[in-house]
Fold this sequence. Notes:
Blueprint: H1 5-23, E1 29-30, E2 34-36, E3 48-50, H2 57-61, E4 71-74, E5 86-97, E6 109-110, H3 114-124, E7 140-146, E8 152-159, E9 165-172, H4 178-187, E10 193-197, H5 201-206, E11 211-221
Parallel strand pairs: 3-4, 9-10
Antiparallel strand pairs: 1-2, 2-3, 4-11, 5-10, 5-11, 6-7, 7-8, 8-9
Amino acid sequence: MLKDPRAAAAHDNAEWCDIVCGSHGLTGRTDADAWSVPRRSPPWYPDAVTLRPGIDAEALLARIDVGPGASVKDSFADLDLSGYGFRVLFDAQWIHRPPLAPPVDTPLVPVTTPDQLAAWAAAHGGGDVFRPALLTDPRVRVLARHDDRGVITGGAVLSGEGGTYGVSNLFAQSDDPREIWQAVCATVPGAPLVGYETTPDLTLALSTGFTTTGSLRVWLHA
């Protein structure tokens, strides 16, 4: 088992945020304290992710554009940004699942072309956030499930390169979203998985072998 699954999840999430921002032409900065981008990140992605507890709030905010819409992922839920014009957008739980191989009848298949990615992004609802550059990054696997007609009914992203993989952007358009969680787990059965969720998705993740490893908080500048 990982020595610190919570820290591993934060680092993996920061790397995924950096990959997405890079696909939009934004160059990130990573050090022992945090990952950040100096200009506004794409929708639904933070401008900074903390990588250890106890960092200085002012030093972190100096690394980003703190205007309206700025957001910070407080990976250890120990910052107070309320005095800087931020409010809590949501609280969530980091999750971790050790290597397992749950049975699954219909595995997820890789998305490999720009047209496939556009269809996946439309089903996901993320649209232009997901750009073709993601498909050429060896650390990223965009995964989809299709029905008998070839229509996308769910999917997820796995990020990482060996070792631990992060699960994000999981979605399901079916009566049993738990099947997508099981299919993601079966895609890399020999590797531990990390991520974060809020209810009701947290309940689904826990039902497929994940456990919680600590709280995180996302702050938004109004």
